[in-house]
Amino acid sequence: MSTSTLQFDNRFLHDLPGDPVEGPALREVRGAAWSKVMPTPVAAPRLLAYSPELAERLGMGPDLLDSADFPRVFGGNALYAGMQPWAAAYGGHQFGHWAGQLGDGRAISLGELVTAQGERWELQLKGAGRTPYSRGADGRAVLRSSIREFLCSEAMHHLGVPTTRALSLVGTGDAVVRDMFYDGHPRAEPGAVVCRVAPSFLRFGSFELPASRGDIELLRQLADACIARDFPELDGAGASRYTRWFGLICERTAIMVAHWMRVGFVHGVMNTDNMSVLGLTIDYGPYGWVEDYDPDWTPNTTDAQGRRYRFGTQPQVAYWNLTRLAQALAPLFEDAAPLHEGLAAFQATYARCERADTAAKFGLLACTDDDLVLMADWRQLLQDGQMDMTLAFRALSALDLDMPSVVVLEAAFYSPEHRDAVLPAVQDWLQRYAARARADGQDPTTRRAGMDRANPIYVLRNWLAQEAIERAEQGDLEGVHTLQQVLRDPYTEQPGREHLAARRPDWARDKAGCSMLSCSS
Ligand code: AMP
Ligand code: MG
After folding, report:
1. Which helix (H) or strand (E) is 378 found in, with range?
2. Minimum-distance ligand to the CA of 203?
3. Between 337-362 and 238-263, two packed helices, what is the crossing angle to 10 degrees?
């Protein structure tokens, strides 16, 4: 045990029943929400990157960050006093099918930190070794996927998207063997551990597992513990409290997915075990960012056939996932009406967000029904013209409303052929849009500033992450640090960083890691 000034109360362990067996032996865990298990030590933990602003929020000062204990604790080789590691039990629907017990197979929570400001944060290592839920896998994570999770969680936070955070990225000094495309070509890769941070990592699947086993007592305990810890604003008791709770989960999920659609994020594996009940983006695996606009695009090669988790269907998938959660929670309700109300709240909230985002992205004071049509037409043009989503939206704020010209969109086109094919239609659309924005009557400076707060310049383009990963695998972390720095302020133009806001280069079009990612991380 190392000492620190951090305070842990590990309420999850106290509020919920645990597995009587300790250690990582594989097993079915019933009647318990967690299993005690220690991280497996690694050969040579080295701090590769950390989030200074999150560290500060957690009350971690320079003494702690600079100490030799920090990489040891966040690589899994030591604990601070008060930490009590556990892995959580959960199940899930994967690609539409019930998969039974899953659980934290390579994530180990170190403890729940309570800050001087009274905030609660669970600290969780991803890639910390085997647990009872590892199902025959190694419990480890490779550097490439850890960099992707580290960078993207922080980037999403700075974009204003609800997400789990990432405190640290620690290289383990151990090799991890992965067959990246499941094609019989395994190779040894450097291993890493990310410490991710959230008020709670409870998932839809945390409730589905006891429900699937008819364990209503554990289901109720989980619901009560979740409400007491993570939804303290819900007072009262009994059925009405559960009703408001489920309603909030539905609303928060709608808000989260609307943000994904606003910034062009594709989660890639929206299984119910990867859906947070707090409405946070969780489990960054084969995610991706839309570049040439295509609602049917998915970055996940494991899903290439069915394309269940493509960009355009994320709202529908979130709704389907909520219906799975509703079914799991049904035993806590006397009838299904409150659950239907919650699901309706998802639809209403999503529709409200869609309108607010349309107004914000177009720089309008409010969104009318016609503006929704304007948006649908614009998205169709982005697709037909193969325009870069981020660049095209951002360019609209530079449009001269009195003389709208397609020139502002020049940098967004991936090919001259596609540009030429849509040019007349784009010109017409720009006229329509300019007329609408002029009629809105906003002062141009205010309008532009508002649009620039809704349309980022810098997102974690798949090939940018891949470039940083390839450098890091050679021991050069400069690319990771630069991206981390730039993505802290994604809505502001940063001189000298133009190449980080550029269209995907041709070499990245079909390259592994850039347009194709698998779950094997
Ligand atoms: P994911 O697709 O990453 O959400 O993972 C689905 C399930 O597989 C979860 O229960 C994970 O904990 C587990 N899992 C994924 N990768 C590993 C691994 N390398 N070792 C152990 N369990 C894993
Ligand atoms: Mg997962």
Report:
1. helix 369-384
2. 2
3. 30
- Going from the Cα of 285 to the center of ligand 1, the distance in angstroms, rounded, reads 10
CA atoms of 326 and 322, how far apart (whole Å): 6
Dihedral-angle region of residue 139 (phi above 0 means left; psi in -120 to 50 means alpha; beta otherwise): left
* Sequence ranges of the domains in the chain: 11-201, 205-359, 364-441, 462-508
Distance CA 109, CA 164 (A): 14
Phi then psi for 162, rounded to 5 degrees? Answer: -60, 130
Nearest in space to 206 (alpha carbons), one of 130, 150, 278, 124: 278
CB 501 within 8 A of CB 285: no
DSSP state of 47: E
- Where is 354: in which H helix or E strand? helix 337-362
Beta-carbon-side half-sphere exposure of residue 280 (alpha carbons within 13 Å): 21
Q: Whose CA is nearest to atom 14 of ligand 1?
A: 105
Question: How far, CA to CA in Å, does 236 sit from each of 14, 181, 220, 244?
Answer: 22, 51, 15, 10
Contacts of 61 (CB under 8 A, 6+ apart): none
Dihedral angle over CA of 275, 277, 280, 283, nearest 10? -30
- Contact 105 CB / ligand 1 (< 6 Å): yes
Which two structure tokens, joined as six digits, stand for 207? 């409730």
Q: What is the pLDDT of residues 85-136, one digit of tens each?
A: 999 999 999 999 999 999 999 999 999 999 999 999 999 999 999 999 999 9
Q: Is 273 a catalytic residue?
A: yes
Candidates 40, 135, 145: which one to mutate for ligand 1, based on the most atoms within 8 Å of Cβ? 135
Q: Classify 41 as helix, strand or coil.
A: coil
Residue 92 contacts residue 36 (beta carbons within 8 Å) = no
Q: How far, in Å, CA of 233 to CA of 244, rounded?
A: 10
Q: Which two tokens mark 429?
A: 């659309």
List, for residues 432-464, the tens digit of each pLDDT value.
Answer: 999 999 999 899 999 999 999 999 999 999 999
pLDDT at 169: 98
Judge residue 108's burial from the number of C-beta atoms within 10 Å of its C-beta, 0-12 exposed, 13-18 middle, 19 or more buried: buried
In whole angstroms, give the CA distance from residue 146 to residue 271: 20
Share of the chain above pLDDT 90, in %: 91
Question: How far is 429 from 305, CA to CA, in rounded Å?
Answer: 34
18 pLDDT tier (thresholds 50, 70, 90):
very high
Residues with CB under 5 A from ligand 2 (ion): 274, 283
Q: What is the pLDDT of residues 255-274, one digit of tens each?
A: 999 999 999 999 999 999 99
269 lines ligand 1 (CB under 6 A): yes
Q: Ligand 2 mean position to 33 CA, how many Å?
A: 16
What span, in angstroms and rounded, lies between the C-alpha atoms of 170 and 11? Answer: 26
**Total-model pTM:** 0.97
Cα 274 from Cα 406, distance rounded (Å): 41
